[in-house]
Amino acid sequence: MAKTKATKPIGASGHKAPAGNSQLQEKLTNKTEAVRRALAKLGHRAMPTEIQVFIKANFDVDMTTKVISVYKSKLVKESGKKGKPGQKPVVAEVVLVTAPQRVIHESISFKDLRTVKEIRNRLGPARMRELIELMGD
Q: pTM of the prediction?
């Protein structure tokens, strides 16, 4: 990997040096930092050619668009931001299954008694006796 061409600072501050075209050029530690700063300024959707122009103008570093693309994808992935939206995930439907009612053979609930009373009212006392005799056998 080629070393970055960073300008040497003039003065005690150590971060910025005047360039020949009256712009301030910043000192870089590496090319990743140049891409990181370009993305911070231009946004994570900036194209590699835009980033290339920004880096050349602000840091006087020559980088190919392929190298910028690799650094950009790595940095965007680390930051958690997404580039272009992809396919949306499939959401599974939740199906609630109710458990069957518990059958207790030892006891009779009030609900059971109400049901028997409703049946008796519909059938009448004589037919209810026939039903009980039929079920008892």
A: 0.43
Domain with 54 in it: 16-79
Q: Count CB atoms within 10 A of the CB of residue 62.
A: 13
Considering the domain boundaries, does residue 124 fall inside one? no
- The 8 Å CB, 24+ separation contacts for 45-49 are 45/83, 48/72
Residue 59 lies in a domain: yes
User: Within a domain: residue 1?
Assistant: no
pLDDT per residue over 59-114, tens digit each? 888 999 999 999 998 888 887 765 556 666 666 666 666 666 665 566 778 888 88
